[in-house]
Task: structure prediction
Amino acid sequence: MTDEMKIIGTALVTALVTIGFTEPLRACFQRRHIRRWLYREIIYNCDVLEAWVHSAKDQPEMQEHTTAQFASQYRKLAFELAVRDAGFYSLRGEEPYFIDGLYRDFERISAGAFHDPKDCLLKAQVASAAVLHGVQDRMLSRRVVFNVSTRRQRAHLRSKLPHHFLYINRDDAPHWLERLRFRSDAVLFWLWRKRASLMQSQKR
Result:
């Protein structure tokens, strides 16, 4: 075998390894990093909205400041960087569409798109529960949500799931595997509530 053939063969092997192994692995780690960063930012924004809604819902004089309050704390750097990367569009299923729609709601709240303060507060209330909706409807990864959440945030999620809103409406009946997953979620949520009630009774 000539030196030229050896060089060509080495280049072909390197290219095949890069295409078949290195690139998919790099994309997997990149997608994982993007998801975790995005989820942290989403959870933070929802926490900010939930705290404000809790404070302002019974005080009409505060409701007109929802836009200014959220705009002062709103974070979107992770989302802006993520959408410039192809890894965002390789997220599973409906996840990128759910996240994109959620950030559109965040933008409308922070930009003052609602003329009526009550409408703005209502949208803030709905958006503040986005993580609950996403986990319950499997639009967000429960594993990633709980991995990036603080202990307080995990306790909050366990106490609120399942959320009082219904599961997402679908044009077609869910597949049997999806129905099985929802049933397993229901059992898990029940166990969480039982555990929380037992812990409260022990504290007393």
